[in-house]
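User: Please fill in residues for this 273-position structure.
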């Protein structure tokens, strides 16, 4: 009971921060989500250290923030599209830095450093394209698409958790995550699809089929993202990616579904547009 109360209070505060970051102003979004990205990348690199490697945490985080802000400036129309390519020489600096670190497993160190950028910073950077829309040739702040995506994600995660506790018997992927069940996934999927349909009425910038597609992507790839992070943690024999969120673990634990689903949502939106 105590754990449930702790989870509830933490979830409420986390939701308020995320919603505020989405809807107030684009620069508030950039600041809050950049800060969350730093926390996520820090947890990823701390987990990677448990594997015996020595990833470049600071260069990796700097590279991730650079990618995030370049994408923000591009999606908002402030920077031209070719500005994104500025990231390339900085990415290769990871190899040069490793040359002078004198650490064991340089290949693993470089791979995990750049892997952290791809796995965490790239999806976060793509979120920038969810908060702007083009109107008469100009990029306009439109946070409701992203808010609708979070509504689906949160409804799926919460209902899957509750359905799993109440009805869970058939294990989804016992080798990786013994507590997840098919009943939880199915129950969560029904609620997520309902929220997706409601989104099409409230947030009409995306069609009904568009929102249903987003909901299906979150159900499938959000679940896979959760399982993938569980695979990482199980291989390292740790329970959570961090301890910053009481009752929930780390920030990466709460956002793994979003992180993995985002590139697929972005691709889907590009296709239907």
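Assistant: Residues filled in for all 273 positions:
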């Amino acid at each position: 009971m105590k754990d449930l109360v702790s989870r509830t209070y933490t979830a409420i505060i986390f939701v308020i921060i995320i919603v505020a970051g989405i809807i107030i102003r684009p620069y508030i979004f950039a600041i809050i989500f950049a800060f969350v990205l730093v926390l996520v990348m820090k947890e990823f690199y701390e987990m990677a250290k448990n594997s015996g490697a020595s990833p470049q945490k600071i260069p990796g985080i700097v590279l991730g923030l650079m990618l995030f802000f370049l994408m923000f400036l591009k999606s908002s129309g402030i920077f031209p599209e070719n500005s994104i390519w500025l990231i390339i020489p900085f990415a290769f600096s990871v190899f040069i830095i490793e040359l002078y670190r004198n650490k064991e497993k340089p290949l693993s160190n470089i791979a995990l450093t750049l892997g952290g950028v791809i796995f965490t910073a790239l999806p976060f950077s793509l979120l920038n394209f969810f908060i702007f829309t083009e109107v008469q040739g100009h990029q306009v702040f439109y946070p409701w698409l992203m808010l609708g995506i979070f509504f689906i994600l949160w409804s799926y995660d919460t209902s899957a958790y509750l359905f799993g506790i109440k009805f869970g018997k058939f294990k989804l992927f016992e080798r990786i995550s013994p507590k997840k069940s098919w009943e939880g996934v199915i129950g969560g999927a029904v609620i997520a699809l309902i929220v997706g349909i409601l989104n099409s009425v409230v947030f009409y910038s995306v069609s009904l089929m568009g929102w249903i597609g987003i909901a299906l992507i979150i159900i499938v790839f959000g679940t896979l993202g959760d399982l993938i992070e569980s695979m990482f943690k199980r291989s390292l024999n740790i329970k959570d990616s961090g301890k910053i969120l009481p009752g929930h673990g780390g920030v990466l634990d709460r956002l793994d579904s979003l992180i993995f689903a985002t590139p697929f949502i972005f691709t889907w939106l590009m296709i239907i547009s």
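For context: The chain is about 70% helix and 5% strand.
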